[in-house]
């Protein structure tokens, strides 16, 4: 198996910027998934906030092998760059027939950084079926400025993703994504292992940029989602244009002239 | 006994309880398309929760009226704050409905 990180393409990163998450189905080998259930049954090692990955996760530890899988390592490097620090890690466990769901929320404090983002890795070591109530994710919600569970009133949004997946699936999420652990109505204990990464370098052109000028980049960034209100949905695309300008280092990037038009300030000509 | 069963059996027959439906619409018009929804059941017979359905209960706000829900609150239209015109946050077009249920 190749150990070279598999960098994302521009189109994939644009998809992340539009959706707020990237899904890697079944990328963790079966033997690691089996091992994970034992690892998660015990106590995870304590990792102080902001610890570099090699120090947080010693060589041959489960977490280190997880984040060094070529597809996971490549996606992480494409989004947060080399040498990120581990913000925190935690195993979320949902007991069978647990009576409640998490309210829809974004993690941590309201985060208003326009030019940087953290990435949260979510790893599912077992098959997640519909009645196990996997993670609820709202595509395209990550650029909306909300504080933690103030969105708890929203039970369902059109086009939401109610995760079902095969064992070994990994999701990488923008820190601002609206999400929540759904109620587990099955007889099976459900585990999800989360690691939050902080970038330590500017998040500019960290991926494979050979397709940077592909029309498919704009197509991805211009995507709308069924839960968007008509008018606000346009603002979401405007905000993605601003984020893509930062990530791509292209200050003139635009979609349908939207950002250029409203920034236009013609100089007044002399009347003389 | 679940909390729901407890609540139901505690309520004497013949009393009235409120069910609440919240619809989030695509525009500020009540006949616009539903993009989000939540339900709260004062009868205690159901416990709707986060992420429990993919299909909205009604296509539009007016469709809820036609089914007997009574509108009691709509979101105010508030202009964007200067300097924050491009920021996005909560869903803007929130409509609260009620149904009164005889137990």
Automatic annotation (TrEMBL), chain B:
Q: What's the protein here called? A: Uncharacterized protein
Native organism is Streptomyces aquilus
